[in-house]
Amino acid sequence: MEFGFAIAIGGLYAAGFYMMLRRNIVKFILGLSLLGHGANLLIFTAAGLTRANAPLTAGGSGTVMADPVPQALILTAIVIGFGVTAYMLVLGGRVSQLSQADDVDALRESERGAE
Amino acid sequence: MMHLLPVYPVAGLILWAAVSITLHRYPLAQMAVTALALLSAWAVSLILLYTATFSGPIVLLVGNWPAPFGITFVADRLSGLMTVTALTVSLCVWLYAAFSTAREATGQGFYPAMLAMIGGVCGAFLTGDLFNLYVWFEVLLMGSFVLIALGGGRKQLEGALKYVSVNLVSSALFLAGAGILYGALGTLNMADLAVKMHLQGMPMLSSAVAALFLCAFGIKAALFPFFFWLLAAYHTPPAAVNALFGALMTKVGVVAMIRVFTLIFNHETEVTHTLLLILAGVTIAVGALGAYGQWEIRRIFSFSIIGQIGYIIMGLALNTPLALAGALFFMIHNMIVKTALLLTGGIAGKLMGTEDIRRCGGLYVGRPLLAYAYLLCALSLAGVPPLSGFFGKLALIRAGFDAGAWAVTAVAVAASFLSLGYGMKVWMYAFWGPLPAGIPDTAPGMRSPSVESSARGMIWAVAALIGLMLLLSVGAGPLMRFCLATAEGLLDPREYLQAVLGQGGGALK
């Protein structure tokens, strides 16, 4: 099962970076969220995939449980990623409104020093 | 009771940020609340530093879960020192902002965002858990995203977009690194990671994960070759935001790097630390050369932030107590002096109506105090002997010679001359030299009275920073001894490990 996950993670990273290099603000943001999902799946897989019970126990020991920590980490990362993506979309929208372009190559205003 | 204190500079400031949002209709109240929050957090951080120095690290186990399982906050010498410095500089920036941005930016959330960001910065300094460090990075980034985009026009928002996107890529790398580390060692507590790394190691993976962290923190610290976002973003917002970023944002990345590379990834130093040393050398050179080629005051000093980061990383890469102590001293000096310079640049820009030094001149005649303030800071930045910049560089260069790292030491010395060069370039053009022909003279009296009075107020912030800088120069001996003790604690972390893990920490060495 790890093999399939590894392929999926690699695919997400590749797609994410490809999208980010497309020079378009919206595609960049999509690429960034793909990258975030790739990282989340990576945590999930690296911590070990177990087919076992939910990490809740009535006190008895001996049952095999899934590790709850990666789930907590991913949950946190997803929430943070959601907030950040929302901010990014608003900022990107405002920038493309102001500069009349969605091509990141056109965004050179801030790097232009005094000539 | 004492062990609860590390929470205050973090959660306290964020709570105060929430309070100050509710006061958005009352700018003065908002300003006062911000001052109150910063002052109280500053007092707490002083207690933290004092206790950490004289009775060992303060450890807070959140929810009372024992160390490797729950989240820990650790106030040791390094985090105490950084928290105190960060809050001191923030107070000075507050003073500047009270006279400048207050009129333009309050009501748009400057103060709440500033408090949230500083809370996140303190969290990143104080946490003892790798994933928690990621969370604090996101918190401080959120605050900084708001600050950098506040009230901005096209130029500023474009810079903000670049800043935001590059930092988010860095966070994704950090997250991946933390995930792999958890998969390999089954823990995220930094002390526990250090022990496990020492006992079982991670053959194959160790250097790869170290490289991931190097990239993630390198982007945040603006290390070569990851520094391009800084040049696009830092000089666009108002000077107060610029100074706050220059003082805090890159330094958080550097401190995270120091923590991770002294505590966790210190086993394959011939790979990781050699790479760091090369990157540090190139960063120093690129920063100094780049700054020399610029013509706008705040662009010059934003570029020079990059070079200074190189010096700090050089100290980390040399990995000796003297080098690390030099790096810490240099970092404190730099946070203070760079803030002063960026604020001076902001005042000069406000007075002249432009920050292009070729269109400025004669500031010395109308503003001798501002001119002397600038001169002191620029000399200190370059490392001219009696001033604070000298001592940090001396320790770093001495450590470079001791380690036989000739190339990087030569670059560090040469770059010092270059930094004197660009410091004097601004002095000659903007302060000392005459106003170029054909530029209308905006002599005192012709400017609007509001600019005059706000400039008079803002200079107090610069004066406070210069006072701190002189204090640093006079007290260089004791502070350097303190930095040496801190560096020894970083290189031999038994005290830290024992404080966090109890007796289990003794397993190391």
Distance between the termini of chain A: 57 Å
**Which assembly state applies to the chains in this document?**
heterodimer
In total, how many beta strands of chain B? 2
CATH topology call of chain A? Helix Hairpins
Shape of chain A: elongated
Instruction: For the largest sheet of chain B, list the strands in their spatial order.
Output: 1-2
Q: Strand pairing plus helix content of chain B: what structural class?
A: mainly alpha
- Specify the CATH class of chain A: Mainly Alpha
- The SSE string of chain B, one letter per element, is HHEEHHHHHHHHHHHHHHHHHHH
Major sheet description of chain B:
2 strands, antiparallel
Strand residue content of chain B = under 5%
What is Rg of chain A?
Answer: 20 Å
Largest interface: A-B, 39 and 42 residues
Work out the helix count of chain A: 3
Rounded mean pLDDT of chain B is: 85
Q: Helical content of chain A, roughly?
A: 55-70%
Main sheet characteristics of chain A: none
Q: What is the total tally of β strands of chain A?
A: 0
Distance between the termini of chain B: 32 Å
**Rg calc of chain B:** 22 Å
Folded structure, characterized:
The complex is a heterodimer of chains A (115) and B (509). With 115 residues, chain A is mainly alpha-helical. Chain A has one domain (2-50, 67-101): Helix Hairpins (Orthogonal Bundle). Chain A is built from 3 helices and no strands. Chain A has helices spanning 2-20, 25-46, 68-99. In chain A, helix 1 packs antiparallel against helix 2. The mean pLDDT of chain A is 83. With 509 residues, chain B is mainly α. Helix content of chain B is 76%, strand content 2%. Chain B is globular and about 70 Å long. Chain B has a domain at 268-474. Chain B has helices at residues 8-22, 27-55, 77-99, 101-105, 110-126, 130-149, 154-185, 190-199, 205-221, 228-233, 239-263, 269-292, 297-318, 321-352, 363-366, 368-382, 388-403, 406-432, 449-474, 476-491, 494-501; strands spanning 58-61, 72-75. The two termini of chain B are 32 Å apart.
